What does this fold into?
Amino acid sequence: MDKVYRLKTGKAMCITRSYKKTTPFILIVILIAVFAFPALTYAQTSTPTPREALIQAIEARAQRDVELERRPASISDMEALFGGEANVVGMTLTNVLEVYEEAYSAATPEKPWWADFPQFWLHSFGTALHSFGPALGSDHAKWLKT
It folds into this structure.
């Protein structure tokens, strides 16, 4: 049965009952810690500053231009798109263009090393045909006439 011990306060304490109560308490504390931790880390994220938001918008535009295979935007395009926001934030158009060009080049996929070979061979074949074409053409013309 339960052993009851007297404390200095004069109250009796049951050892086995106190252990039975600590297990659910520990489980509750662990569950609170597990579910509260993500909420605490989520609350610590901050909203981006207007400058960071502008940079993210410029980078998104550069990625979209690469995906749609558009040519890189010029400084006049950047002024039309982001000029007002850049003035409010304190960025110059040169800075805006630098951010755009870096993002555009980062989003542009690299061509494999063999991608230029078909152009090389077509150019070589075209040069050879241009060089020997008149001689081949005259032989074929003679053959067709006979």
